[in-house]
Amino acid sequence: MRRAVLHVDMDAFYASVEQRDNPETAGKPLIVGGTNGRGVVAAASYEVRKYGVHSAMPMSTALRLCPHAICVQPRMARYKEVSARVRPISRGDTPGAGAFPR
Predict the structure, then answer these.
(1) For the segment 31-55, what is each residue's pLDDT rounded down to a tens digit?
(2) For residues 17-35, b (16+ Cβ closer than 10 Å) or e, as one string?
């Protein structure tokens, strides 16, 4: 039996969904997260990462590093909907992939 390893980088998943749903943000530095005084970065697009912004960073720090970043509030229902479409792809193509947490 031939084995393969599937690695899916989902670190920027929320940001990627936002960029796909809002094409005007594609290719631009995008941060998904709370923008109130104590907000944190839930996801950082690859374009904003070059400024040193990453997930779990305080939003105030992220905006200091990249003041021109586009900030959007998380839409968890939307991410769940898109995730529900992505998950079966890997389940069907890889043995043991059904072990994803629910």
Answers:
(1) 999 988 789 999 999 999 999 999 9
(2) bbbeeeeebeeebbbbbee
